[in-house]
Amino acid sequence: MSLASSPLENLLLRPDVWRGDRLASLGTEAVASGFNALDAELPGGGWPRGGLIELLAERQGIGEISLLLPALRKLEDSAPIALVAPPALAHAPAWAAAFPLSRLLVVEAEGDDIAWSTELLLASGALGALLAWLPAKTGNKSLRRLQLAAEGRLSLAFMFRPPGSARQASPAPLRLQLAGARQGLRVDVFKRRGPPSNRSLLLPVERPLSWQRRATAGQSVTLPSTRTLELVR
Amino acid sequence: MTPLWLALHFPRFALEVFEPSGDPDGSPAACVQQHVVVCANEAAEAAGIYAGMRLSSALGLVPDLSSHEREPARETDARFRLACWAGGFSPHVSLAGFDGPDTLLIEIGGCLRLFDGLENLCARIREGAIAQGYSPCLGLAPTPLAAEWLARGGEEGAAGHAGLRNHLGSLPVGVLGLKQRERDTLAALGIAHLGGLFALPSSGLARRFGTRLPLQLAQALGEVPDPRLPFVFPEHFEQKLELPAKVSVSAMLLFAARRLLASLSGWLATRASGISECTLVMLHEDLPPSHLLLSFAGATRELARMERVLRERLANWNLPEAVTDLRLEARDAVVIAGSTAGLFAQAGAHELEPVIERLRARLGKEAVHGLALNADHRPEMATRPLTQDQAPGKGRGQGKTDSLGPTRPLWLLPRPRRLRQHAGKLWHQGAELQRLTSAERIESGWWNHVAGDVDADDAINEEEKQGSIADEFADVRRDYYVAVNDAGEWLWVFNDGRQWWLHGVFA
User: Fold this and answer.
1) Is CATH 3.30.1490.100 what the domain over B237-335 is classified as, yes or no?
2) Binary contact (B506, A63; C-beta < 8 A)
3) Which of A89, A99, A177 to mutate to probe the B interface, most B CBs <10 Å?
4) CA angle (B145, B150, B152) in 5-degree steps
5) ipTM score for this prediction
6) Nearest Cα to A92, choosing from B478, B494, B472, B409?
7) Residue A54 belongs to a domain with what CATH number?
């Protein structure tokens, strides 16, 4: 610690103090999201650890988890990844392609148990990442508890919430709105530590086939009477 | 390593085997033997009841005094449990007190480093005893006898030889447990403290009080060896605890069971082992015993973890009838590899195990699981939940599926959902679907089709009427496609030759 710096400067260097004119660094190292455009928008240059990250996905199947996979791959080896109250059955072959299945922990819960399980898992500090699907009625009080449980931990805490929650205030320091689009996944960072972001990002998240082919596939499915394949231009 | 003995003296032991004391709002209670009070709890002592008082006088002072007739067998069991529990701190435990097994002796000189120093260790031992409902007095000295005397005198004591004589010198002669006649003699000599005895020549003492007293003084000072019979830990753990009264509220069983678990935890530590499950058997008066299985995510001997699981299990347990006895059975103890303390505190996967236990205790064992691959082409059969352990390398067909990964959806619907067809096009949630890939044929599963074809066909027809798909155990023949709609939803759909179905979501 340098003695030359003034007490005020020392104070401003503290990770929990941020100034409105710049993106805050959260003190804990962030995990690069794998998308440069998104990293530039996120405080600390990646998904911040030790705080809730709210993801408000408009629908399922737009690539909301594929958005996270590059970061999950980058986590320390063997750091467990938990799915709390997933909206459907996890399909092992697809997850196995992302990371070893031994790292995955699935917790099936309902109602109030979802927030309870999430809090317990976050507070353990043993997870690399946690993906939780919170029900619509999750109140601010529960979210604050979750935020407290996540603070100071090294886990990435992704909270999926219904899109309607955008209007509701939340203690999560980082909130993103996700929507499907023809050329990629549309991401709006509508709350972050630092100046508000007004850019809407279009990210080429991983899909079963390239976005290029998606863009050129112009016509809709015509139901084949025979089971021959339509050529896709 | 110099030996260091810790003596635990329980002044209210005879009473505390019935009920915990130290509770400030506890009702007055006393333990009596042949109509004479042996010991009383805080509330009763505050009312003027003391050991040696006649029960009738005590009842005169406190009419609602609850009295327990002393039960030596219960005390023996409790001492045995305490000795097992003490095994968690040191393998050298002795119940051979100088005038009866009233005091628990633990040799802690060799395990100070393990427990981060003397203060931490003493605090842990004291807290452990209090948590079990006992009120201990600790005594600490290089010789077992000095430790016992210090504990009885209510003094912590000294760790070294240096000040031992001075330290013991200030103790009252009452700690010696002498006979009434000998006490009278000492009083006549004007000796009230041990210091006075140390000043006397031992030959004179031997003439007046026999050879036992000078020998004890020499043993306490470490001048003469004082071997103690070590406590022999049992080979198998199965302990029974008779409840002082019938208990019908499961939460109230927790306290009694804690004494058993503490004992189990210490016993496991002496064997460097852990258990992944144990059974709490609750005996009833009329009904057959209830068995409550406590299972842990991994082998453990940590008391806090066991207690948490027990608390969660008891909270969801409906007692059929009041419980009279508890029995804790633990089999299949497995050796746990010791862990080396890290230079920096690191949270690892082992931190997760207690959490998994708590989740399982509340949500059910099946609700918390890992995933493994199953070598089957049918998507609904390709995933296998793992509830036991999550050891890597358990999944089969790992290499084959790696190449499939990106072409498989992360989510699978629990049952395929029928897609609407309208104007020759596929619709999902009001949006038109575009098919992006060529057909991928998946077929297999004829081996699940053994129940009899006629029945199975009936079942399929029945299912179809309800707008659902033929059961997953049927022989499947499907063409899968990746489809997308204008809202940007990527879906996995298939055609089984008759119908279009939605099966997966590329999340």
Assistant:
1) yes
2) yes
3) A89
4) 95
5) 0.81
6) B409
7) 3.40.50.300
